[in-house]
Design brief:
By secondary structure, the protein is of the alpha+beta class. It has two domains: 142 residues; 111 residues, Jelly Rolls. 35% of the residues lie in helices and 29% in strands. The protein has four helices and twelve strands. Strands 3, 4, 5, 7, 10 and 12 form a six-stranded antiparallel β-sheet that branches. Strands 6-11-8-9 form a four-stranded antiparallel β-sheet, with no helix packed on it. A hairpin with a 2-residue loop joins strand 4 and strand 5. It binds zinc ion (ZN). Zinc ion binds next to loops.
Length: 269
Amino acid sequence: MAAFVILLVLLVITAFVFTGIIALWVYRDAKERGDRGWMWVSIILLSSPILGGLLYLIARREERYPCRFCGWMINKTANYCEHCGKQFPVCEPGSGYLEDLPLNERKNDSKRRNRNRRFLMAMILSAVMMAASLVGLIVVAVNSGDADIGIDWNTGWVMMKTESTWDNVWTFRYNKASEGYHVDSRLKVENPQTQQLAVDLSFGEGQEMLMKISQQREDGQTIEQEVYLDSSSQTRYFDLDQFKDGKIKISIYNNGVSDVSGKVTVLDK
Ligand SMILES: [Zn+2]
């Protein structure tokens, strides 16, 4: 449980860091391109860093720099200034396009590249940490307490089902279900010698229903008890001597019956 909480906190922190890094990068990049930084930060916070970041990259403005003649901000790839009309590049033969860029712009360019590289590293690092804590969380969740008692996935269908497990009382009700469909719950047993399982189960005309009670022991083996139940208005009791204190899993399988309702709990004898 402690590991679960620690990993969950770690996941939340790394997710915040990841979002923060992307938001900061987008903010600075947008500002440099004369775009609305806060608008993009809001989009990232409202959607998600990945979706918002992608949207930004798609809508990202072209890089701009001041015209060397009049200072008007023009697109880096523009071949003339929209403001003063001067043509670019205005270079003599042999001088490259870059020479049209003011010297400090070129310096800024390499600074920007370095900054982008640092941001990318931080982004990857936080994404890896986020993924690692998520994987850790899943591993811990699957291997801990409740989840390890024989996972038996339901593949069938069910109609109009209501179900709840509250205060160690499990109730369920459904109209119809496919053959083999099962409802499951886990109940807590404090003293298997003095307590028993109380089962109320009723359903419409049809076959008996199979109930399985199981518990996983510390050595990994599973203790399992199977009982067939017919529809009854009376409460039936089952001893729990063969189990130990802790949680037991109860599964009740459909066998072509309908209008099923049940209430299962652990009571003192
Ligand atoms: Zn100009």
